[in-house]
């Protein structure tokens, strides 16, 4: 015999499912009459058993217009890319952005700017077809995101059906899902009492809640949604300004922020920034800065996008919390490309719930700029609330620097003892050992065979280290020459796993061009640019002979990346390596 609570839960699930078929798939399984009957039954049961349901009161279809969606699709491709925002951390950064928009657009009159709050949550794309919500998708890698439709449908501010007129047939609404400060505290207090998982901040809480497997739990979390833009798919945008677009969103029934203002100069932007900075404590949700967007759609289109950011918008971030600690030592790490990175070892401190004891000092110039010595007291903050950074050295009459020791940059690589060289004035130093340097060799091989590269299952860092230790491999080509008799004598490798690894290696010989380009590990060429290059040239030999003017034509590849690409393929060692590799692999479409 089922308990009343179980009956209610089962009924809720049923209704959510039928609503999903109706609203999302346009394929109702039961008649409207039967649906209404189920809803009535549920309402009656809930009415009579209010006390039973306190913790799950919000998660009923009787509260939410709509329904559950079964995640038969784990990921969904965005119809238009979901870009992120470039950041400005101070006035100078912001002024550089302004200068750039004037320069790139060629506009001499003042460009109108739309300033908004930068809500600290997670980005969500809502795909509406003929005005009905089809999918809610997280940003993911900007191309493909996670399908969170079921859970998003439980957010009251996300309508299942849009209001009003002139709704584009296929529309992607973009906005932020977030949790109010009060709900976050309430949720964590509840979790503490019930020894449940605690979230370190409201952003993580919102993300965790949106990704719940059980949508009734998401529903209890009282998530909010605020839209900041949209894209029409296969249609024409007739709004002339961003503000006009925001008003359209509002008329369609989706909330937008009411803190948005238009500015006509950097002075006006700075005063908005300061006003919001002081006002943020009074807001009932967290923000981490403001977003400044070119208001005119025509100028937005003139400026276009880079591969990751629109050139017409910038996130102007608030400074994060700063703390003081002691610099205990500096070590030097060797990266995949041979770059030597000084790492500050600090007396551990906590900033916004995260313990910090190691901080990158980037390069020689950075150490010089800060005037840093071992033993100094330093101010540390988290750039963009994420990356820890030493801001400055504390020098006051109370703190003596007499015991501080100068940081000596090594002349030889700490791993392979090859000479360290400086390639440019930017301050970066490199180990000249190439693949002879164990650190470079290990990391290059890891990168080469990683998921986005050759993607060989069973060839992770541990296995790669074993193969290096046995002198079986020192370059990626060696992996394609491995024999079973070599593998079975390795520790913890049986005949079965050795065979599997060889099968995987053989499978990986058929590789897509973009994955091959990624695997090469050209400085600054990640997944997105590798795809861009492969789409543009479609042939590894053409890429190997590429000239600067060819690269200049590609939007999304700036002068620094172009230079890295040219330098990489001009290097005779790289050329020889690729030619040799091509004897072992086959490039597929
Ligand atoms: S515009 C192409 N506007 O900040 C436009 N983003 O750090 C891209 N965000 O991924 C986004 N408030 O999740 C925009 N008013 C706002 C925003 C906002 C918060 C988030 C968004 C984005 C992230 C970038």
Task: Characterize the structure shown.
- The strands form 6 sheets. Strands 12, 13, 14, 16, 17, 19 and 20 form a 7-stranded antiparallel sheet that branches. Strands 2-11-10-3-9 form a 5-stranded mixed sheet. A 4-stranded antiparallel sheet has the order 5-4-7-8.
- It is globular and about 75 Å long.
- The protein folds into 4 domains: 4-63, Helix hairpin bin (Helix Hairpins, Orthogonal Bundle); 75-316, 2-Layer Sandwich (D-amino Acid Aminotransferase, Chain A, domain 1); 322-407, OB fold (Dihydrolipoamide Acetyltransferase, E2P); 434-588, DNA polymerase, domain 1 (Orthogonal Bundle).
- With 589 residues, the protein is α+β, with helices and mostly antiparallel strands.
- It contains 22 helices and 22 strands.
- Strand 16 and strand 17 (387-393) form a beta hairpin.
- The N and C termini lie far apart (58 Å).
- Bound molecules: 2-(butylsulfanyl)adenosine.
Brief description of this entry?
The chain has about 600 residues and is an alpha+beta fold.
Named once each, the bound ligands are:
2-(butylsulfanyl)adenosine
Overall mean pLDDT: 88
Q: Give a short account of the largest sheet.
A: 7 strands, antiparallel
Amino- and carboxy-terminal Cα gap: 58 Å
Q: Compute the gyration radius: what is it?
A: 28 Å
Report the sheet-strand fraction: 15-25%
Q: Stretches where pLDDT falls below 50 for ≥5 residues?
A: 54-58, 65-72
Q: What is the 3D shape?
A: globular
The share of residues in helices is 25-40%
Shape-level CATH architecture of the largest domain: 2-Layer Sandwich
CATH topology of the largest domain, by name, is: D-amino Acid Aminotransferase, Chain A, domain 1
SS element count, helices: 22
The number of E-state strands comes to: 22
Query: How many structural domains can be distinguished in the coordinates?
Result: 4
Q: Say which CATH homologous superfamily of the largest domain is assigned.
A: DNA ligase/mRNA capping enzyme
Q: Which structural category fits the helices and strands?
A: alpha+beta
CATH class of the largest domain: Alpha Beta
